[in-house]
Amino acid sequence: MIEVAVGKQSNGATFQLHPKTRALLESRFPGWSPVPSSVFVSSSRPWDYERMQDPMWAQIVMLLTRLDEEQIEELGGFKFTSPSDDHVVYESHAA
């Protein structure tokens, strides 16, 4: 499963691949590299994960991994976790 660390800020959140996920992708896809290394999503209001719709989570994973939905599914889906306490913010077994 792809794991993305998400850091909440007052007006948005920063998303980065977990180091274990980077290692997994490098081993499964020769020549893969983490570009971009992070994605920041901002909001005009205080950040709230509840506002993010299901497709938005998958789009962030696709941006960070450069994988398509089928490849993400083959890896078991994805989850977003808070790096401070490993709390799962969102999880999907299908892209």
Structure description:
There is one protein chain. The chain has 95 residues and is an alpha+beta fold. It has one domain (2-92). Helices cover 29% and strands 28% of the residues. The chain is built from 3 helices and 5 strands. It has helices at 19-28, 54-65, 69-74, and strands spanning 2-9, 12-17, 39-42, 78-81, 88-92. Strands 3-2-1-4-5 form a 5-stranded mixed sheet. A hairpin with a 6-residue loop joins β4 (78-81) and β5 (88-92). The longest helix has 12 residues, at 54-65. It starts with a strand and ends with a strand. 19% of the residues are buried. The mean pLDDT is 87.
Keywords:
5-stranded mixed β-sheet, 3 helices, 5 strands
Helical residue percent band: 25-40%
Q: Tell me the overall shape.
A: globular
SSE string:
EEHEHHEE
What average pLDDT do the residues reach? 87
Largest sheet: 5 strands, mixed
Strand count: 5
Enumerate the spans where pLDDT stays under 50 for 5 or more consecutive residues. Answer: none
Measured by DSSP, the beta-strand proportion falls in 25-35%
Cα-atom Rg, whole angstroms? 13 Å
Total discrete domains: 1
Summing up helix and strand content along with how strands pair, one would put the structural category as alpha+beta
